[in-house]
Amino acid sequence: MDGSSLIAPRAPGALLGAACLAAVLACVWPAAAGQRAAAPSSSGNPFEDRIVPLRIGDRLSSTEFRDQAGRPFRFEQLRGNVVLVAFIYTRCTDACPLITQKIGRLRAELGTGSYRYVEATIDPAHDTVDALARYARKYGASGSGWSLITGSEAALSSLWRSAGVAVIDDGRGELIHNDRLLLVAADGTLADVIDAAGWSQSAVAAGMKHLAGKAANPLARANLALTKAVAALCGSSYQTAAGVIDVVMALLVAGLGVAAFYWLGRRLFAQGA
Q1: What's the number of domains the chain is made of?
Q2: pLDDT tens digits for 143-191?
Q3: CB burial string 259-268: b at 16+ within 10 A, e below
């Protein structure tokens, strides 16, 4: 699903409100019928309990990392900017390059300003500074304000686990992980968490503009919030939630069209009589 699929059709507030209610009912009804979504399985790792999950309003790790140029990196140095944080590894050949390229398009859309972008590796054993530099050149992650960071296994594991990113080595050189974005406000506190598998470039751009105190597309922001709410309620991914919303919106638009046609037909019939 591309970024445009998360942007709701232009509709009055009443229609958007009806879409919210209908989307919620679309999730509640299967749940009531016993069609429960599968919950993420626990890794069973006892060390997971030692990591305190990040919550909205928390600050990210104060540990020192290294960026793709070998320079020291701390999240504190980005204060005063709205920051997007993603999690990737350089040996990945599918989802991670797509995330990086999507961040590039997001960066182009937002343009210059108080925005910063960070991609943290989930594979510090292989992702050295040189590996990150090669990956950055290959996928166009260049320019000021875009950092790819590595560091010790302990520091990075703490970062991604606190962010709710689970990483499993499949034993064949690939890492299985859930995709997640963090949006950090200018004061350095966590402002939002977005599952990357279905994030919309325009919606995330609107969210970042809003955090920066700039005018943002209200429909894009409302759609992202609605998608998150439906995903949380249904226990499904953003892509599934976005699909539910798209179907509901299409049905509502079609229903309004039928209602308008019926009303016009009655008016014409009354005038003819």
Answers
A1: 2
A2: 889 999 999 999 999 999 999 999 999 888 899 999 899 999 999 999 9
A3: eeeeeeeeee
Question: Which residue, 99, 52, 59, is CA-closest to 78?
Answer: 59
Strand partners, 258: none
Distant-in-sequence, close-in-space partners of 218: CB < 8 Å, separation ≥ 6: 206
Answer yes or no: do 28 and 57 share one domain. no
* pTM above threshold 0.70: no
CB 217 within 8 A of CB 10: no
Burial of residue 14, with CB atoms counted within 10 A of its CB: 0-12 exposed, 13-18 middle, 19 or more buried: exposed
Residues 94 and 48 in one domain: yes
CB-based burial, 109-146: b 16+ in 10 Å, e otherwise: ebeeebbbbbbbbbbbeebbbebbbebbeebebeeeeb
Q: What is the pLDDT of residue 51?
A: 84
